C-alpha cells in the first residue's frame, strides 16, 4: 500500500471513528482500564527504580561502605581512608528500650544506630525538634526514637528510657532515615550518639551488632582511583565487605520486582479478558456496518483496503488510549509516594519514559491485533451483491490457517515480552499456560451448557423456557459471559484462598507451635540464672535454649561460595553475611534427616556440618562436600555429613547449619532461647530486663501481628487490583448484552405483543444468569482450588484448607454485582416502542 | 470499433442443499459504447443476477464476460475492483448510501479513492447538477427517498463511468420521483456518452432505452 493510500484511509478511519465511537465505547473502556493498570505498574516501578538509582548513594549512606560485620574496624586502615575522604562510622545493634515510669512500664525491641557527627553523609534525616540530631554527639546518653516507639511507649520529649541498664534521655523523634537500603524498613528504630556506645554492654551475637564505615569522596580526584585505593587498603583484611551504591537497596528492589511482576500478570489477564470483549464488540460494530462495507465494495474498494480502514481505527483508538492511560498513571504516583515516603523514606516522582509508553502501546497493539484478526477478517464475508437482494447475513469470526498462525505468533511475542521482563520468567510462563488452559476450559464449559440445555425445553415454565432459549440461541452471550467472568472469578478466588490460608496458617502458628518469646544475647555465664528466673516465674514454662556462634561461609570445596549460587536465589542469604550456627547432641524433633547420618562421635576433632536440605539443593551441595567456615576470624574446614528438613514456619529455633557439639562446644558462645509459658501473665518484661539488661526480648505475638498487618495490607491491595479482572469481565458482559440490543428489543417487543409481563421477562434474565453463574462458580472454584492449593502447599509449604466463608463472600459479591449489572443493562430493552420497530425505522 | 461489453455463453449456477440450480443459461449479448439497454422479466428470472455478473460482483459458473476486451471472469478480486472503481457505476433500488456519511462525503468517496484532485469540489459540482446544492452536509436519514436516490446516482456517476448498472432505480419511489430520477439518469447518460444497463419492471422506463432484453427462466427470450 502506498503512502498516499494510507493517508487517505487514515482520514476515512478518523472520520468513521469520530462518528461511531459511541458504538465501540466498551472497547475504549476495557482498553483504557487495562492499559491504565499496566501503565500504572510501569510508571510506579520506573519511578521507584529511578528513585533507588538516583539515591543509591543516599540509600547506601555514602559513595562506598566498609562493612566490618560484628567487629570494630581496623582503625589504622580507616585512618588511611580518612586521608582522602570523609568517613562516618556507625554501629547498628538490636536491643530493648524500656520506659522508666513507676508503673505500667513498657518495652520495645529496637534497632539502634549509633552515629557520629558526620552522619548522614548523603540524604536527610527527618526529625524534630531542631538540633536534636546534632545533640546526640554533644550530650551523653541521649536518644532519638522513631514515631512508633514514641507512640507505643507513650513517651514525651525529655522522658528517660532504659537501654539495657543505662538511662537515656529522649530528645526527639525521627520519621525518616536516608540510609535504609539494607536495614530496618519495617521494624522500630532509634538513633544515638557514637560515644554512648561505649557505655553499653553489647554482645556481638544477641545484639546483631554491625560496624559500618560510610565513605564520601571529597575533592576532584577520579572516583575510580579512590575506589581502587580503598580496595587496596583493605585487600588483606578478610573481615571486610565493601559495598557500592549500585548494590544498595537490593531487598527493596527485589520486593518491587516481585510485586510488579505479579501486578503485570494481573494487568495482562485483564487485557486478555478485555480482548474477548473487543472481538465481540468489534464483530457487532462490523455487522452494523454491513451495508456500508458492501457499498464500499460495490464502488471498487477491495476487502484489504476496507480491513485496513478498520485496523487503522483500532490503531487510532489504541494510540490515544495509550497516551491517556499512560498520562493518567502519573496521577497515581503522588498517592503511592505518600505511602512509600511514610514507610520507606523514599520520595518518588513520575518521569516520562518513552520505553514504558512504547511497551503500553505494544502490549495493547498485540492484544488488539490478536483478538481482532478473526473479527476484521469477517469483512471478507460481506458481498456487494447483497445490496441487490437487500439481504445481509450476520457475520461470524473468520479463522483461516494463516490468521491462526499469525495470532499464535503474536501471542507468543506477547508472552515472551512479559516473561523476558520478568525476574521469574518460569513462573510467568506457568501463569500464561494456566490462563489459557482456563480460557479453553471455560469456552468448552459454555458449549457444554448450551448442548445440555438445547434439547431440554420440555416441562419448564415460560420464563425458564425463554432463559434456556436465550442461552442456546446462536447469538447467545453465554460463551462470552462464562469466559470473561469465569477467568476473573478464578483469579479473584485463587488470591482470596491464598490470602486466607496464609493468614490462617500464620495465626494458627501462634498458639499451636510458636513460643511466646525469643530471648537473644544470653551470655554463657547467665545461662543457669536465666533458666532459674524463668522457672521461678512459671514452673511449667517450656524452655528451649541453644548455644549460638557467628560463622561465615568462606569457601565451598575450596572455592568462592558465590560461584555456587546467584544472588537472586532464595538461599543466597546463607552466604550474604555471617550466620548464627548452633550445635545439638540429638536430632531435633522437627528437623528429620533426609540424607546422611547424624554425628560421627568417633571423630570429635573433626568439624561436621548438618545442612538444611533446601539450602543444599539450591547450592548443589551434597554429603561429603567441604565448607570452610570463619569463626572468630579463624578459618575451619568441615564436612557436610547430613541434610535436614528445616521448617522455618513453626518459629521455633531453626538453623540452616548445625555443628557437631563434640567439636563446637569449646568455641566461645552465647545462648538463644525460646520460652512457651503456661502462665504468661506472670512474666514481666521490665523486671526481667532489670536482671538481664543485655538480653533482648522479641515477643512473637507482637512480631507476628506486625507481619500479619503488613500481609493484610498487601493482600487487600492485591485483591483490589485483581478485582479489576472481574470489572473488565463485567464490562465485557455488559457490552455483549448491548451488542444484542436490537435482537433483545425485537424479542421483547414480540413478548409485549404476546402479552408477557415485565416481571416474567426479568425472571427469565435472572434464570439465564443463574444457569451461567452456577457453572462459572463450579468451574472457577475447581480451578482456584487447584491453583491456590499448589501455591500454598508447594511455594509457601503450608497447609491448605477450603475457606468456605471467603468463598461465600467472593461469589455473593461478584454474583450480586453481575446480576445487578445484567438487569440494569437489560432494563432499557424492556419497554420497546412499537411504532418505530413495526415501521422498521 | 470493439464492443464495450461482450457476454458469451454465460451460465450461473448455485448449489443449494446439494442441488444445482441454473440461474442463467447460455446468456450471450454485446453492449456497444453509449448504448442503453433495459433488462426486463418476471421476478426470479435472473435479471439482477445478470447485472451482478456484469459488475463483477459474482463469478460466472461458465462462459466469458469481456469488458473492453479484458475478460472479467479471469480476473482476481483486486483487478475487478479496479475496473469497477473506474469504469462501472452501480445504482441500487434501496439507494444504499453510507448512513454516517453526508451527501457530499458519499459522492466524494469514489473520487477520493480514485485520487481525484479536489474531490470535494467535484462532488459538489455533481450534486449541484442533480439539484442537491442545499443538501451537501445532510446525512442520508435527513433526505427524502428521491433525494437519497439522486445522491446514490451522483455517487455512481462521479467517476464518469463508461457504463451504469441500475437495478430497479425507481423501484422504491413514487411516480413523481420516478419521473425526476429517470430524466436525470437519461439526461446524464446522453450528456456524458455513457452506456446503461437497467433492470426494471417499469415498462415506461424500459421504453426509454434503445434496446430491451427480456429474460425468462434464466434464458434471454427477447433481445431487440
Q: What does this entry look like structurally?
A:
The complex is a heterodimer of chains A (841) and B (224). Chain A has 841 residues and is α+β, with helices and mostly antiparallel strands. Chain A has four domains: 1-58 and 252-423, no CATH class; 62-247, no CATH class; 459-514 and 699-841, no CATH class; 542-676, no CATH class. In chain A, 53% of the residues lie in helices and 16% in strands. In chain A, the strands form two sheets. Chain A has a six-stranded mixed barrel. The model of chain A has no long low-confidence stretch (mean pLDDT 83). Chain B has 224 residues and is of the alpha/beta class. A six-stranded mixed β-sheet of chain B has the order 6-7-8-3-9-10. In chain B, helix 3 (103-113) packs across helix 4 (119-129) and helix 5 (145-157) runs parallel beside helix 6 (175-192). The longest helix of chain B is centred in the C-terminal third of the chain and has 18 residues, at 175-192. The radius of gyration of chain B is 17 Å and the shape is globular. Chain B starts with a strand and ends with a strand. Classes of the chains: A alpha+beta (841), B alpha/beta (224). The interface between A and B is medium-sized, with 26 and 34 residues.
Amino acid at each position: 500500500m502506498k503512502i498516499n493510500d494510507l493517508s487517505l484511509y487514515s482520514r476515512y478511519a478518523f472520520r468513521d471513528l469520530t462518528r461511531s465511537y459511541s458504538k465501540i465505547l466498551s472497547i475504549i473502556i476495557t482498553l483504557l482500564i487495562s492499559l491504565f493498570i499496566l501503565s500504572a505498574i510501569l510508571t510506579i516501578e520506573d519511578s521507584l527504580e529511578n528513585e533507588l538509582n538516583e539515591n543509591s548513594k543516599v540509600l547506601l549512606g555514602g559513595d562506598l561502605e566498609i562493612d566490618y560485620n560484628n567487629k570494630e574496624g581496623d582503625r589504622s586502615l580507616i585512618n588511611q581512608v580518612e586521608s582522602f575522604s570523609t568517613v562516618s562510622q556507625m554501629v547498628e545493634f538490636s536491643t530493648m528500650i524500656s520506659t522508666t515510669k513507676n508503673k505500667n512500664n513498657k518495652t520495645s525491641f529496637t534497632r539502634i544506630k549509633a552515629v557520629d557527627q558526620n552522619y548522614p553523609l548523603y540524604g536527610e534525616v527527618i526529625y524534630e525538634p531542631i538540633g536534636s540530631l546534632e545533640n546526640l554527639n554533644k550530650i551523653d546518653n541521649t536518644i532519638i526514637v522513631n514515631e512508633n516507639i514514641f507512640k507505643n511507649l507513650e513517651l514525651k520529649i525529655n522522658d528517660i528510657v532504659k537501654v539495657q541498664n543505662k538511662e537515656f534521655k529522649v530528645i526527639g523523634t525521627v520519621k525518616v532515615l536516608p540510609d535504609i537500603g539494607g536495614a530496618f524498613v519495617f521494624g522500630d528504630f532509634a538513633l544515638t550518639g557514637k560515644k554512648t556506645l561505649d557505655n553499653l554492654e553489647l554482645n556481638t551475637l544477641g545484639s546483631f551488632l554491625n560496624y559500618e564505615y560510610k565513605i564520601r569522596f571529597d575533592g576532584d580526584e577520579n572516583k575510580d582511583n579512590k575506589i581502587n585505593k580503598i580496595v587496596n587498603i583493605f585487600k588483606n583484611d578478610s573481615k571486610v565487605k565493601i559495598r557500592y551504591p549500585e548494590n544498595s537497596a537490593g531487598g527493596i528492589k527485589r520486593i518491587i520486582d516481585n510485586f510488579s511482576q505479579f501486578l503485570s500478570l494481573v494487568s495482562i489477564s485483564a487485557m486478555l479478558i478485555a480482548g474477548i470483549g473487543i472481538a465481540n464488540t468489534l464483530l457487532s460494530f462490523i455487522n452494523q456496518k454491513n451495508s456500508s462495507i458492501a457499498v464500499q465494495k460495490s464502488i471498487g474498494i477491495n476487502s484489504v483496503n476496507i480491513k485496513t480502514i478498520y485496523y487503522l481505527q483500532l490503531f487510532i483508538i489504541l494510540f490515544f488510549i495509550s497516551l491517556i492511560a499512560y498520562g493518567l498513571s502519573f496521577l497515581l504516583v503522588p498517592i503511592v509516594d505518600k505511602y512509600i515516603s511514610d514507610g520507606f523514606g523514599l520520595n518518588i516522582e513520575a518521569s516520562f519514559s518513552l520505553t514504558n509508553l512504547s511497551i503500553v502501546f505494544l502490549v495493547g497493539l498485540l492484544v488488539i491485533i490478536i483478538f481482532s484478526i478473526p473479527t476484521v477478517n469477517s469483512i471478507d464475508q460481506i458481498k456487494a451483491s447483497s445490496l441487490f437482494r437487500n439481504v445481509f447475513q450476520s457475520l461470524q469470526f473468520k479463522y483461516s490457517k494463516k490468521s491462526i498462525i499469525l495470532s499464535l505468533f503474536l501471542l507468543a511475542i506477547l508472552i515472551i515480552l512479559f516473561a523476558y521482563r520478568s525476574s521469574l520468567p518460569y513462573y510467568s510462563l506457568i501463569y500464561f499456560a494456566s490462563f489459557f488452559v482456563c480460557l479453553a476450559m471455560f469456552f468448552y464449559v459454555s458449549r457444554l451448557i448450551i448442548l445440555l440445555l438445547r434439547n431440554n425445553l420440555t416441562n419448564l415454565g415460560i420464563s425458564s423456557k425463554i432463559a434456556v432459549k436465550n442461552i442456546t440461541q446462536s447469538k447467545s452471550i453465554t460463551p462470552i459471559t462464562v469466559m470473561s467472568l469465569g477467568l476473573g472469578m478464578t483469579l479473584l478466588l485463587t488470591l482470596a484462598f491464598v490470602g486466607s490460608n496464609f493468614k490462617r496458617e500464620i495465626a494458627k502458628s501462634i498458639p499451636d507451635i510458636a513460643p511466646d518469646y525469643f530471648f537473644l544475647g544470653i551470655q554463657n555465664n547467665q545461662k543457669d540464672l536465666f533458666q532459674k528466673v524463668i522457672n521461678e516465674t512459671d514452673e511449667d514454662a517450656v524452655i528451649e535454649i541453644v548455644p549460638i556462634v557467628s560463622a561465615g561461609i568462606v569457601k565451598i570445596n575450596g572455592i568462592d561460595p558465590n560461584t555456587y549460587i546467584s544472588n537472586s536465589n532464595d538461599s543466597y542469604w546463607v552466604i550474604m553475611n555471617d550466620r548464627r550456627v548452633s550445635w545439638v547432641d540429638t536430632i531435633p524433633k522437627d528437623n528429620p534427616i533426609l540424607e546422611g547420618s547424624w554425628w560421627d562421635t568417633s571423630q570429635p576433632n573433626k568439624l561436621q556440618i548438618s545442612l538444611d536440605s533446601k539450602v543444599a539443593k539450591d547450592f548443589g551441595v551434597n554429603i561429603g562436600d567441604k565448607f570452610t567456615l570463619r569463626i572468630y576470624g579463624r578459618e575451619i574446614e568441615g564436612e557436610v555429613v547430613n541434610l535436614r528438613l528445616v521448617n522455618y514456619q513453626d518459629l521455633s529455633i531453626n538453623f540452616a547449619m548445625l555443628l557437631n557439639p563434640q567439636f563446637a562446644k569449646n568455641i566461645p558462645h552465647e545462648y538463644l532461647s525460646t520460652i512457651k509459658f503456661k502462665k504468661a501473665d506472670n512474666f514481666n518484661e521490665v523486671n526481667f530486663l532489670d536482671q538481664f539488661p543485655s538480653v533482648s526480648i522479641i515477643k512473637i505475638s507482637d512480631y507476628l501481628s506486625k507481619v500479619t498487618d503488613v500481609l493484610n495490607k498487601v493482600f487487600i491491595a492485591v485483591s483490589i487490583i485483581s478485582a479489576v479482572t472481574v470489572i473488565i469481565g463485567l464490562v465485557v458482559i455488559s457490552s455483549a448484552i448491548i451488542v444484542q440490543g436490537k435482537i433483545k428489543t425485537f424479542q421483547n417487543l414480540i413478548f409485549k405483543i404476546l402479552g408477557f409481563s415485565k416481571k416474567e421477562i426479568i425472571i427469565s434474565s435472572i434464570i439465564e444468569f443463574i444457569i451461567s453463574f452456577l457453572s462459572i462458580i463450579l468451574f472457577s472454584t475447581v480451578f482456584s482450588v487447584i491453583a491456590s492449593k499448589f501455591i500454598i502447599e508447594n511455594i509457601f509449604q503450608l497447609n491448605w484448607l477450603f475457606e468456605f466463608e471467603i468463598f461465600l463472600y467472593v461469589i455473593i459479591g461478584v454474583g450480586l454485582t453481575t446480576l445487578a449489572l445484567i438487569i440494569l443493562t437489560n432494563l432499557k430493552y424492556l419497554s420497546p416502542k412499537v411504532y418505530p420497530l413495526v415501521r422498521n425505522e | 470499433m470493439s464492443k464495450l461489453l461482450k457476454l458469451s455463453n454465460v451460465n450461473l449456477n448455485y448449489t443449494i442443499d446439494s442441488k444445482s440450480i441454473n440461474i442463467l443459461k447460455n446468456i450471450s449479448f454485446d453492449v456497444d459504447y453509449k448504448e442503453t439497454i433495459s433488462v426486463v422479466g418476471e421476478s426470479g428470472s435472473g435479471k439482477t443476477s445478470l447485472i451482478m455478473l456484469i459488475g463483477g460482483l459474482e463469478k460466472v459458473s461458465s462462459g466469458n464476460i469481456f469488458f473492453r476486451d479484458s475478460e472479467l471472469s479471469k480476473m482476481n478480486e483486486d483487478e475487478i475492483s479496479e475496473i469497477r472503481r473506474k469504469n462501472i457505476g452501480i445504482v441500487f433500488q434501496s439507494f444504499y448510501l453510507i448512513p454516517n456519511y453526508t451527501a457530499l462525503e458519499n459522492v466524494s468517496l469514489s473520487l477520493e479513492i480514485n485520487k481525484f484532485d479536489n474531490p470535494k469540489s467535484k462532488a459538489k459540482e455533481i450534486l449541484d447538477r442533480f439539484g442537491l446544492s442545499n443538501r451537501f452536509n445532510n446525512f442520508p436519514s435527513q433526505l427524502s427517498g428521491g433525494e437519497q436516490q439522486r445522491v446514490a446516482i451522483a455517487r455512481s456517476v462521479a467517476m464518469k463511468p463508461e457504463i451504469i448498472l441500475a437495478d430497479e432505480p425507481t423501484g422504491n419511489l413514487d411516480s413523481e420521483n420516478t419521473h425526476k430520477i429517470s430524466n436525470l439518469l437519461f439526461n446524464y447518460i446522453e450528456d456524458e456518452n455513457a452506456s446503461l444497463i437497467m433492470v426494471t419492471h417499469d415498462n415506461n422506463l424500459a421504453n426509454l432505452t434503445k434496446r430491451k432484453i427480456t429474460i425468462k427462466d434464466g434464458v434471454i427470450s427477447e433481445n431487440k
